[in-house]
Amino acid sequence: MRQIFPLGGLPAGAGADGGGGGAGELSDADLAALYAYPEGVRTVRANMVMSVDGAASLAGRSGGLSSPGDRRVFALLRGLADVVVAGAGTVRAEHYKPARPAGLEEAWPGLRAGRPATPPIAVVTRRLDLDPEDPLFTSAPPHARTIVITSGLAPGERVASFDGRADVIVADTDRVDLETAVGALAARGYQRILCEGGPHLIGDLTAAGLLGELCVTVSPLLAGPGPGRISAAMGLTEEETARPLRLAHVLHEDGFLFCRYGRA
Question: What is the pTM of this model?
Answer without folding.
Answer: 0.92
